[in-house]
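Technical annex B. To support the medicinal chemistry partners, we prepared a structural model of the target in complex with phosphoenolpyruvate, based solely on the information shown next.
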Amino acid sequence: MIIIMEPNATKEQIDKVVKKMEEKGFKINLNYGDVMTVIAAIGDKRLMQPESIASFDGVRNVKLIQEPFKMAGRESKQEDTVIEFPNGVKIGGLEKSVIMAGPCSVEEDLDGLLRVAESVKKVGGQFIRGGAFKPRTSPYDFQGMEEKGLEYLAKARETTGLLVVTEVMDSLDVPLVAEYADVLQIGARNMQNFKLLKTVGKYNKPVMLKRGAAATIKEFLLAAEHIMHAGNHQVILCERGIKGIDSSYTRNTLDIAAIPIIKKYSHLPIIADPSHGTGRRYLIEPMSKAALVAGAHGLMIEVQHDPDNAYSDVAQSLNIEQFENMMQELNRLIGRLNYANHC
Ligand code: PEP
Ligand code: MN
C-alpha cells in the first residue's frame, strides 16, 4: 500500500509508521519528496488493514497499489530510478544515454578484446560487454571461457576504466561473476529463472535484465519485481527483441514501443539491444537511433575485433571501424537528445 504522510509530518511520526509496517512484515520503500513523504509498503494487507495505518498520527491518506509490479511500478515510486556507479557513470532518468559495447563472447584473443575496449572508450562508451558464460542453443557451440573470460574482462576494465557487464546463467555462478562484474546480466533465456532472479536480488550490485524473447511487458516487469522483492532495487531493463512472425529478414523484432510503455509504467532505467533485437549488422544503426529517440537510457551493441570469425553472433557483430563510424552518428543524436532533455 501507499502511505502518504502529511506535509508537516514529523520524523518520529514517519519512523513510527515505518516501524509498524516492518513489524507486520512489509518491505518499505521510503520516498522523501519536496512536499511530503510517501511510504510504499509491500506485503500482505491482511496483516495490516489500510484503515488502521490511516489512523496513525501524521498519515494523510492510504491507497492500495493496483499495479501487479508493486516495486518496479510507478505507483510506489514516481521519480525515475537513476543507478550510479562508483566512477560517476549514471543510467536512468534524464541522464545522458549510455553505451555498453563489446563482443558477444569473450574469446581467447585477449588483444582483440582490449582493442575493442579501447574503441568503446574512444567513442565515449561507458561499459565493455562480453559473455564468459554463454547460453547457446546447441551444446556443440562455444559455451564461453568462464572464469578466464571474466579475467579478460577485468583486464579490459583495468586498461580502459570501462565498467564490465557480463552474463550470469546460474545461481551457483553468481558469487564468481559478481567478483568481476560491475553489472550482472540476466539473459533473455533466463528472464524467468526465478531462482536466479532471487539470487541476484540478494546482491548489492546492479543487474541488467533482458526481456525474454516471448515475454510480455507484464512478465518482464514482474521478473524485475522478483529481483527487487529479494532486496536489490538496482535493476536496468533491456529490450532485446521478441519473436516476430518473419524471421527471414530479422532475428527478432525489436519492440521499440516497449521503451515508452515501460517508461510510463516503471521508474526503472531501460536500454535497448539492437544487435540481438535485429540480428543484422545493417539494422543496428537505424534501430539504435529509433531506440534513443523513443527514450532508451542506453544501448547495448555487439562489436568484435574480427566478426567474420567470431564464435557467436557473426551476422550482427560490427567490426571496430563500423562501430566507430556508427558511434559518430549516434553520439551526435545522444548529444542532441541530452540537450533537449535539459532545456
Ligand atoms: C547476450 O547479450 O550476449 C545475449 C546472449 O543476449 P540475449 O540474452 O538477449 O539473447
Ligand atoms: Mn550475442
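Notes passed to the chemistry partners:
The chain has two domains: 2-63, 83-342.
The first strand starts at residue 2 and ends at 5.
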